Structure formats: structure tokens, C-alpha cells
Amino acid sequence: MNEKDMTSPRYEIPPELRHQVTITTLERIYNWGRANSLWPMMFGLACCAIEMIATAASRYDLARFGMEVMRPSPRQSDVLIVSGTVTKKMVPQIVRLYNQMAEPRYVIAMGACASGGGPFKEGYNVVSGIDKFIPVDVYIPGCPPTPQALLNGLIALQKKIERQSLRDLPWYQKGPAEPIPVPVLGPDLMDPRKFALIREVTHRQAVQDQQEGEVAHE
Ligand code: SF4
């Protein structure tokens, strides 16, 4: 953030103190600190992860944005970069990792697969985008997106953070945030919040089948 943006709303600073003293709001300095110290989770799913690894290497150098510390633990990470094809088998693990991240936390859907299923959309084992399960802050198009595209997405996330208000953010409200229920992988992915409905429909179907069987027997 440049000095002009930092000192808004404007306060008159005496000329002799300019470039030595800055007056700003708590929200701006806090957002600036958060946006420039994002630690991504060391986590990849498929081919897009190779581009993410390349972005962290010396040629593109995430350290320029304060993001060089890729953490192998969700409890020390701020950004979950969903980089690759999201299979149904992996969804429970991704939701669990998201729940384990400390707030404030952000999610980037990197590539066509994470954003909407990509070339495997409608496949029997692939979900049509991770945003069906966890909230996504930035989507990055491409198959795969280049390291430059990932950097552009991370800069977009920084700009989004700099515009946020501490008053509205869910993690600064009263009371703890509710974790997202982890889907259960059975014959298909099941949302635990819909178990009662699934049980009711299954029971109704079983009773109907039994009645039809008895009628056919008579
Ligand atoms: S978007 Fe393309 S490169 Fe990325 S995981 Fe899917 S198939 Fe692989």
C-alpha cells in the first residue's frame, strides 16, 4: 500500500514530518498487516499444484508478497489454495482442513477444476467446484493457471482484504464461528445436515417397495 492510500482519510501532516510520520485508521493498518503476511497451506491436489509449487520457487518468488512461509499445518495457515481436481473422496478432507484453519482464513480456487469441475465436470467421482462446500474468496481461471495467474489471484486477494471492514467480518462477531459439517462419503457425498431427510425418503421408498411386492404376490 502506498503512503497516499495509507493516510486516507486525509490528515494534514506538517511538511517537516512527511515521510517520517503517517496517520491512518486502525482498520487500514490492520488490513495492511493481514494482507501482507498471508501464509498459504502446503497442500495440493493435482496438476495445478505443480504450478503452485513453481510460484513458490525462486523464479516467481512468493516472498515478495510476504507469502513465502508455506505451512504444512492448517492451524498455522491463512490461505487454502485449492489447486487441482476436487474428487468426492477428497472433499471431506478439504472441509476438515478448512475447519481446522484459524480465522481469519481465505480460500482460493486455483484452476478450472477447483472453480467448476474443469475437464472432469459431471464425472462420477468429481465435484463441480469446491465452492459447493466451502466459501471461496478468489477464483483463478486456467487449466492450469500459470504462476503469473496465481500471483495475480493472490494480489486480488490482498486487494479484497484491504477493502474489508472489521465491523462486518464474520470472525470478529460475538461467539465462535460454526464449523462446516464434514460431508460423509458413502455411495455418494452426503451432507450430515440432510441425514434426517435422507432417512425419511429411504424409509418411504422401502415401505412402498414392500407394498408393491405384497400386491404382486397376491
Ligand atoms: S484445471 Fe487443468 S491443470 Fe488444473 S487440476 Fe484441473 S486438469 Fe489439472
Walk me through the structure.
This protein has 3 domains: 35 residues, no CATH class; 125 residues, Rossmann fold (3-Layer(aba) Sandwich); 32 residues. It is 36% helix and 8% strand. It contains 7 helices and 5 strands; from the N terminus they run H-H-H-E-H-E-H-E-H-E-E-H. The strands form 2 sheets. Strands 1-2-3 form a 3-stranded parallel sheet. A two-stranded antiparallel sheet has the order 4-5. Helix 4 links the parallel strand 1 and strand 2. It binds iron/sulfur cluster (SF4).
- The count of β-strands is 5
Structural class: mainly alpha
CATH architecture descriptor of the largest domain = 3-Layer(aba) Sandwich
Query: Distance N terminus to C terminus?
Result: 81 Å
Please write the string of helix (H) and strand (E) elements. Answer: HHHEHEHEHEEH
Mean pLDDT: 89
Physical arrangement of strands within the biggest beta sheet: 1-2-3
The CATH class of the largest domain is Alpha Beta
Count, helices: 7
Q: Give the overall form.
A: elongated
Q: Helical content, roughly?
A: 25-40%
Small-molecule binders: iron/sulfur cluster
Radius of gyration: 23 Å
- Total count of domains: 3
- Uncertain stretches of 5 or more adjacent residues: none
Q: Using the coordinates shown, work out and report the CATH topology of the largest domain.
A: Rossmann fold
